[in-house]
Design brief:
15 helices; globular; single chain; alpha/beta; about 15% strand; 8-stranded parallel barrel; about 400 residues; two-stranded antiparallel sheet
Length: about 400
Amino acid sequence: MANIPDLELAQFLLLTQTLTSPLKLFNIAKNEKRLLYTSAPMVRYSKLAFRQTVFAYGTDLCWTPMVLAKEFNRNRFARDSDFTISTKGPQPPTIVQFGANVPQELARASSLVVPFSSGVDLNCGCPQSWACAETLGAALMEKRELVRDMVVETRDQLRRDGWGVGKEKDIDNPKGKSVSVKIRVHKDLRKTIDFITTVLGPDQDRHIDWLTIHPRTRSTPSSTPINIEALEILTSTFGDRVPILLSGDVFALSALPFTSPLLHPSPTFTTTDTITITMPPTPALPAVSSDAPILAHLPKLAGLMSARAILANPALYAGHDACPWEAVEAFLNNVARCPLPFKLVLHHLSEMCAPGMGPNKSALLSKAERTEMMACGNMLDLVDYLEDKKGVRRDM
């Protein structure tokens, strides 16, 4: 594990050789007749140990938590704490997400991280009041020209730095990097179409490599289902021009709120240094009754982004409908190599050991057992507690 300023030249060269253009990952998934699988940028949670865990279970592309570009540019402490990478063991293909509202700030911050990542992403979806008050996150959905200027300036800066930002032209370039945007939708979908049209730019040289759409408005709570009709319209309108990821309500591969010709994936077999992960068979689709609602068909959707569900079940994309014990072990092994604050480890495990977001509501630990786990005072006590509980489950 290393922070950016600590990398030696040999480590840097080794790292850059393992990076893959994200657009190539889109192509690989398409050739395998499946959607691209990604993990969302989650505040506190999308740290290296978690990214390594979901990567071992079939996640193709991982996001960091949102990083504030202005502070990242000015503060070494922010750089050390906000972006940590691996020089030994798996380095998942990683997109660094920034919060920014000034083109030069986003371009400078992107220039700092792209040697150690697969690309950068601009957050135009965070609905939190503090972010919107600073004209960050979802507030940028009212600033389409500014967003366009930020991604154009960033791409120009990366090009001047010598990186391959020619989109499909650099798909096999070892120095290929991506620039993308994550958005929400407006109540009036025409505004969203205008926003995407402006940010996307001309077909012959579009400004972004792909787009992530969270089909809720800035004020829509996460308990409300996503606007699948809006997603259907947007993917139909723009899906041939740019790859589109869905963020929101990705709770289980067998229980998505739409249909697609790419929804019958064959799970990828993955191994790590310490654990062999056996993938179960692809889950069968549930039987459809005659009175079941007709689901929207999204043939032009390119991939999925999961947040709450993958936090509870890092093996989501491997076909597990609930978090397995081996995922807990894999996470703890990664934490041993890439330490996290102990309270954060507890929060991760409380999510993983509780009922998940999908239809399967089984849990590794009961509510009372999770309360006991949260009372552990250090890693040794925590590991001993989980080993005891796992042993009890095996004896049952």
